[in-house]
């Protein structure tokens, strides 16, 4: 696991592959909606992001190891904590969005779905994970 | 030199965990990279342990103790606050 070791070449592309697949799906959706210029811009953006992820994943640091999905216990812990912070940020954004949208239109719009998913996922995760420790 | 990491096993009695990893590694003229390779962790993780920023999980802590041929309590020692 030492970062002095050469990493597996397939691992290096893990995050880039996620960006390519996700970006391609989004690009296809935008293209299908008829916004071809935006679709091309989206494709270029995700290709560039995938290239950046590929380049970064070739490094020796903690972030590179996480991008390769091959970190040790500490690096996996960092990734887990960062994921939790990300989830909290998204939940706050969803709640703020629901409040603002309700104030503007009288309806929370799609934000309520995000709030529901966030709350539901948290309860399910707590219930499932508590049996493991 | 011993490094310590603050952990809180309860609110009233914070506990410092000291370790002698750097001292023992230096004594055995071993690099961080070599120790990391022996433990199957990254060099950054060895550095974090030595600096007291990261307390390894028990299997890794036992592996560290085994690596230096010491019982784990000689490598990591809790120190209660007065």
Structure description:
The complex is a heterodimer of chains A (133) and B (82). Chain A contains six helices and no strands. In chain A, helix 5 runs antiparallel to helix 6 (111-130). Chain A is flat and about 55 Å long. Chain A is mainly alpha-helical and 133 residues long. Chain A has helices spanning 9-12, 14-32, 36-57, 62-67, 73-105, 111-130. The model of chain A has no long low-confidence stretch (mean pLDDT 91). Chain A has two domains: 1-71; 72-133. Chain B is α+β, with helices and mostly antiparallel strands and 82 residues long. Chain B has a domain at 29-72: lambda repressor-like DNA-binding domains (434 Repressor (Amino-terminal Domain), Orthogonal Bundle), CATH 1.10.260.40. Chain B contains five helices and three strands. Chain B has helices spanning 21-27, 32-39, 43-50, 58-68, 72-75; strands spanning 3-8, 14-19, 76-80. Chain B has a three-stranded antiparallel beta sheet. In chain B, strand 1 (3-8) and strand 2 (14-19) form a beta hairpin. In chain B, helix 2 (32-39) crosses helix 3 (43-50). The relative contact order of chain B is 0.23. The mean pLDDT of chain B is 85. The interface between A and B is medium-sized, with 14 and 15 residues.
């Amino acid at each position: 696991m030492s970062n002095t070791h050469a990493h597996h070449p397939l691992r290096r592309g893990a995050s880039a592959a996620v960006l390519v697949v996700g970006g391609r799906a989004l690009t296809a959706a935008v293209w299908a909606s008829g916004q071809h210029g935006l679709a091309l811009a989206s494709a270029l953006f995700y290709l560039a992001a995938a290239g950046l992820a590929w380049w970064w994943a070739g490094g020796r640091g903690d972030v590179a190891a996480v991008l390769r999905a091959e970190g040790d216990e500490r690096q996996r812990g960092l990734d887990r904590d960062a994921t939790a912070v990300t989830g909290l940020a998204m939940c706050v954004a969803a709640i703020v969005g629901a409040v603002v949208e309700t104030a503007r239109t009288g309806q929370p719009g799609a934000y309520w779905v995000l709030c529901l998913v966030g709350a539901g996922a948290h309860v399910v995760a707590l219930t499932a994970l508590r049996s493991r420790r | 030199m011993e490094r310590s990491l603050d952990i809180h096993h309860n609110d009233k009695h914070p506990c410092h965990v000291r370790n002698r990893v750097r001292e023992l590694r230096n004594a055995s003229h071993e690099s961080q990279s070599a120790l990391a390779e022996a433990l199957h962790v990254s060099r950054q993780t060895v550095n974090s342990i030595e600096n007291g920023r990261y307390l390894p999980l028990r299997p890794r802590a036992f592996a560290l103790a085994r690596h230096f041929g010491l019982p784990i309590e000689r490598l990591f020692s809790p120190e209660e606050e007065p």
